[in-house]
Design a protein that fits this description.
about 35% helix; methyltransferase activity; methyltransferase; EC 2.1.1.282; S-adenosyl-L-methionine
Length: about 325
Amino acid sequence: MSMGAFKHRKATILKQLSVPQAQYNDLSPKGSIDEPIRALIDDINAIEGLVTTSSCSGRISVFLEGKRKKDTPEDLPRQNEDKDLPGIAGPGGKGGGTWLFVSHSPVDVPERNEGDRFNWGDHFTRLFGLRPHEVVPRYSLSSGISLVHLKFEPMIMHIMTKSMDDAQRVLSAALQAGFRESGTVGLSPRADGTITPMVAIRSTGLLFDSIVGQQMSQGVICAIVSEEYLHTLVQLGNERFRVNKSRIDRFRAELLKLYNMSAPPSADTEGWEDGAARKRRKRAEGLERQSQLKGTTDVHSESQEDREVYADGLFT
């Protein structure tokens, strides 16, 4: 893509992204930047050859599927062929559905006294728009009941680049930061001969999706798991938020380094090192240890086991 054409497309995209934060009231990510990655987005868009086209910083969400239609004989063969069941809303609400809860940051967990060990209450049940249900009726997926999902999804971002070199830098930074499922598309020339590489930054390793409720025939949305189980899922999601943030910080640092820019120090990046840096450090530590051992007099000879442990530490 020519630099002029890229600049024009970048300007158009940035104009679309400049929606005031106060106007963003939709529960699902839509046309605005999530606050946890605002600084990252600003840094990326400040680079001449890059522009973000879509992003989500990561989220915990509770989502009610769209109404599941009842099976008919005509549907059954098609169900066996399709990957997804018919009538189920997708992650973005495809086919209908309702967002019951969305958070792009860790969810507050109320403190509990020791005496409440066996009394979990219904804090998360209510927070997620569910109603406690003592006895859940038996049902099958073909009964027309919509299910409620509690999900954690890590950051995902799409970055348009003006050249293959820019795309390679972005992809390299993403892989180094731990976004292992990242990749590049749009490598084929357009009709005019230009190429618009698009890099998708993503990682599925942190994702989870649990069924926690169902919508009854009368429209009531009931929990089908205990409050204790919801508490466990929230704690798991909060821990994955921490890992997700660490990867985001590393991606930002790696990307800016590749463009000879500097990022503010972060607690998550100061103590992190890539594989090459770790090998250099381990080798230096091994050589220092070897020097210390040579200068130490010991009446005991070094055992074969000690030598093996030391060698492992030297070349790991």
